[in-house]
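Bit of a strange request maybe. I'm writing a small parser for structure token strings and I need a real example to test against, not something I typed by hand. Could someone generate the tokens for this chain?
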Amino acid sequence: MKFRISLFLLIFLHLITESIAKPRCDIFYENVYNQTEFPRDVDLYSNGEEKEIGIKLLNIWDEENKDWKLAKNKEGYYIVGKVNKESLLTKDPYDYEKILIGDIVIEVNDKDIRQSYDESKYGTYISDMFDYNEKVKIKFLRILPNKENIYFDLNLENESFSYNKPFLDILFKNISVNDIAGTYTISLKTDFTEFLGPEYKITEMAHKYLVNKLNSNEYPSEKDIIEYNWSYEECPFDEKKWGDTQSRDPAYGLIFRNQISEEKNQRYAKYLIIPYFEFDEEDNPIKYSQVTYERDTVFEIKNDFNLKTFPFDKQKLVFQLTNARYLFDEWKAQPTTWTQQSGENLKKENSITGWNITNFKMTYNSYYDFTTGHTDGFDVVFEIERKSKYYLFKIILPIVLILIVCWSSILIDPRELESRLTITIVCLLSLIAYNFVIDSELPKLDYLTVMDYIILVSYVYATIPNFLSILSFNLLKNKKKKVLAQRLEYIEVRYGLLSYLIIILSIIIIASNTNPEYSSQALTWASAK
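Reply from user aminoacidic:
Good idea to test on real output. This should exercise your parser:
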């Protein structure tokens, strides 16, 4: 009997020793992994029972003050920056029973919103202006594609909504553009975070196993918390390990649209669990925890390029984030100020080789896929302008010089046909050879760019002196047509190169006016708009 008791005590002491020796993060992880109580953490929404009328006002970044401000039109009316209910969402400008991002709010309950809305109190959250279940009549102005103004009224309701809304930090490190392939490569760091309250098991277990009073294994008292006499263990987990828990995941379902590939050998990712406290209005501490998914990676993204004004073009690099697992009303994108500031910093650094970054902006958007329906998300847009001097001085100028040499042949006596043809043919062959040299620098498209037109016109003008030289030579052999030959020579000398330059300028002017959105600042002189 004594032997059995001794054996039992040894086993018990061994188990206690093992549990004490085990790292706190491992103990926390095992409890999260073995969670079976209902509701589980994944059954809860990170934002529960919030007032939602269906729209959010547009916030824009104020670079001067380094802060956000409400956007207004020139008359001072507020602009819809986001639609938060799928039942109100439309992308059809002629659908007046729903709301379009960019619609202008004119009146609320028959009152001019400029006088009735307290922007310092409510900010972008117009829903906070009303009580739960309150009926609200809003008058909107929509500017149609043909610039016609349409006013329409909608009766909305400030309903209670629950959804997931992780905070999304995207920190941009580097971008390289491959417009010939229609892609760009972006290096970035992402932090996707959910802040979980006391109703979550993760919060309960994080505080139980990871928080302690300073220099003690005891949980801190309320006084200790208020006096910051406490510390915590920060727990990192790799993707597979945390994924095995099937618990809260702020990155669940998140995708980058138009992603072609990811550089796996440059990818580093982890989950980070941090417990902390918040204080209510009466300074009582409330338990919270933070779940963050961190990732450093490099993506190749497919992008639409309009190169009709190449090489005097500007483009938009569009980076889109959405969720492929949650429907529109179940998940809301929440990009942070850090994302905006990161884009602004990259703009200042102007670190895209061969391009200038002229603007950066973030806009809410929605996307539709037949497998998932509508999903919420946002667009990150870098507006870039090509550095054209390389093409101007290393491609266009040499072509023009070849043409000048080619047309210099008309200054030779027209009777010296062989000398003339030698120059023009050599120039034509030089132009062809040069085109082969620069071919790798030019995009292969199913339409012609400004550069293509310049090269095509140059080919035509390189051949014209050949025919003119032969024609002049034949006319001079006929005494009756000698005057005609002299007149032809006069026209060649005076208008030959000039007409070439006029056509080149006309090509640039037409391109800049037909594609003003994609024409660089270098062509503003040519634009009539």
